[in-house]
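Reply to dn_fold:

You asked what the input looked like. This is it:
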Amino acid sequence: MSSTIEKIKDRLNIVDVVSQYIKLEKAGNNLKAKCPFHNEKTPSFFVSPIRNSYYCFGCNASGDIFSFVENFEGVDFMGALKILGEKSGVPIVFEKKTVKDERFCLYNIMEEACLFFEKNLQSDSNNNIRKYLKKRGLDEETIKKWKVGYSASSWSGLYDYLKKTFVVADIEKAGLIKKSEEKNDNYYDRFRDRIMFPILDGSGRIIAFSGRIFKEDGKNAKYINSPETPLFSKSKILYGYDKAKFAIRKLNFSIIVEGQMDLLASHYVGFVNTVAASGTALSVEQLNLLRRLSNNIVMAFDSDSAGLASSGKSAMLALSLGMDVKVARLPFGEDPSSVILKDKNIWKDAIKNSKHIVDFYLAELFESIDDKRKLHLKIQQIVIPYIAKIPNKIDQAHFISITAARLGVSEDIVWEETYKILELENKNYDTNYNNIDSQNIFNKDKKRAFLLKRSSIEDKIVSIINWQKNTDNPIIDIKSAINKLEIILGIK
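and this is what came back:
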């Protein structure tokens, strides 16, 4: 294994690898960039061609080509080895008999299960399922490319197949079987009568499955996913990320859809920068995967209530991370898959004409609500919380100005509503500024800047100042303290 690693390092230098992921600039003998592992405005991430390593002075991230790929792609060392082996042309050969790694065994089980599902789908007895997939817009090439399969309705088809080669405990650990609740301790397949979509990590290894029910009866969940396993953590993986990552970086935006069928349809018509959230709101880890490639996302979740709820939570989180969030408007009752099946140009136009989420909801609300008072309340409930999440103050001010103009009210009113949300979210905020008397330490403009820039430490400083103001014998120079605080916050 060590010789393989050295061969890869001989063929790939740190600059070649890192520059495929982020834009580097010359800095003397080194190269620099904004760190992909934490938020920063000024580049503090340096790459040294001489040492063949990288170091970030902001977050202390450091290492070689392997650790960089591990952290950027969200994979383990074996995953990084696979990715870099493919980039360098060095074949990666594992001696199965000598490798005692639990994860290695689980990867083999998942690969074998995937082959089992693929063969099931292609059997003559499952021709009706292939016809269904074709009707949904999936041709043979797409099915093969994405390793789509089928898990039969039998209780133990996969279990009986895998236990011939693998230890039962490992099959269970991989999340493919479940133990019966009865006393006989029998096992049965987790996925039954479902169209199977393998979920891959950033290096292209199968780590989980998502199964879509074939015969919908209203009793069973439409989709079920693998449970958390040593290989699979749902909050850290996006379906299709392994195939979309380079297109996202090249096009400088990602498209996020809800389900597997939506993703396959989007890729089929050329939008290969699409990933799927697998029916849930996005996590910080998932958004960070995308943010390292591009700060821009277009959300195209289903237009039903569940889809809107998921997209709302995801958008809030993405905005708070400093991402630019747009929404693609779909016809009511449609999802990306159904839209593309009817007319791919509708989908193309939806992506092309996507709007920033604040603009999107302003347009939607003004179009759907005639009553002025109800309109104002809805904007207060729906739009302003999104504005409050935007960390870029110039961008935030821009949307406050637009919202105020559309409502026909002063910007101060919208700012005040934004303050309320900010104060509510900062539970550790010790001072209620609405109760401060005429000797308030900040005027209106300074209060605005303060509320938008404070941190928990600064909150405590303000609390101390106000506490001292209300004592008979303050032990600090209040005027001097206020002056220094305003300088620190940059509002003087």
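The longest helix spans residues 102-122.
Hope that clears it up.
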